[in-house]
Amino acid sequence: MFRLISLLLVASLIILGGCGGSDQDSTNNMNDTLSSNQEDVVVEEFYQLPLPGEFFSSLRDLGVKSKPNLLNPTENIASYTTSAEKAVNFGVYSSDLFYCSTFNLKTDILKYFDNLKRLADDLGISSVVTQETITRIEKNLSNKDSLNNITTKVFYDASAALENSGQGSTLALVIAGGLTESIYLSTKLVSDYKDGSAAIQLIADQKFPMDNLFAYFGKFPDDANISQISGKIAPLQTVFNSLTETAKDTMASKDGRKIIGSETLIMMNAEDYKKIIDKAAFVRNSLISKSSN
Amino acid sequence: MKLFRYLSALILFVSISGVGFAQVKLSKTEPASSLCTDYHKKACKFEKQDILFKYNSQSRDALFRPGQTSKLTFTATKGYDYRLTFAAEDKILQGGNISFKIYDARTKQPLFDSEEEGQAEFEFICDSSINLTIEISLSEASAEAKSKVLYGCVGFLLESRKTLDTGF
User: Which residue is closest to A12 within chain B, CA to CA?
Assistant: First the structure.
């Protein structure tokens, strides 16, 4: 009988030993625990959207100037009580920060970062905005590139933290808030329609990230928050989808590099643009106002 | 009887310890993506020298099995140059390679095939905004290799810059 006990002990220690060991690289030890659950791990189809900061930089490079009093007021944070409101407005405030850092607006930057910190704490991703982050911001208030880098890092870390903690649907809400706010701000910055304007074309082209956002929403068909927020943003998507498209000529290559682009160009006239402006404001206000959900 | 109780308690202890230990390392519900965070930043290197390209936030990592195919859709904006670089851990490549196809996400029209072009990386000029889908595939591993390795990281690095006007 003691032999049996000894054998069981040795076998158990071998099994446990197989699970231990130091991590050699990022995935060495996954084989131990995943081998019996191979079918449980599914690499899904991914949908990526550009950061709001990249969109604002493109507008700035086209000569678009900033305007005051456009951001979601910091005191609105008090009215965001549900997890969906907090996630959406984490995206909205992130987009506001990208706007501030891109156009070098120093007003209330610390208050906006403080809002991000409070929302991140509530969303369970407090590590993305630490006291060290706030200290770095204080030291770099006059440096727009540093502020842009810090904002990018916070947004990127928040995305990774939400995804890695299994909160993909919350991440979708953050991205939805960020995209809606950046489209809203762009329509306020470019308030007058001009035929052939590159800035107007860039705003019309937000149809592409909007398509990706809704494809990403589609990964969470049973999520009530996603259903609610996608319903709120749908009127804006509908206007983008109604824009006409025209075929365009494309060169095959330039300087030895391939040229790639859509076969059609999205067209937007003054009437279309007015609809985009109105719907962007309507949808944005529904996301930031009290009782938005 | 005493011995039987001792044996039962011992087996129970060992079983509980084993389950707990495994769960600390990777629970069944832990997203696979967390295991490869920032892999692309360390592993992807574009071979050609160039200027002004910046990291694009649409880059990402994923967990793959040998032989697996996955898709990623990203937005390319008019007036920007892009370059794409891929990397995978040696243990899942097993001497094989990463192949990728790029197509228009909406029309499904193929635009680039790394195997046909014989290129492991790709750069292009975007002349009108478009959503592009990249279909990334790893070579199927041999039966022997498959018995040793199940998973590894794949990285996709996207870099971009404003399109340069060249010449005088």
Answer: B14
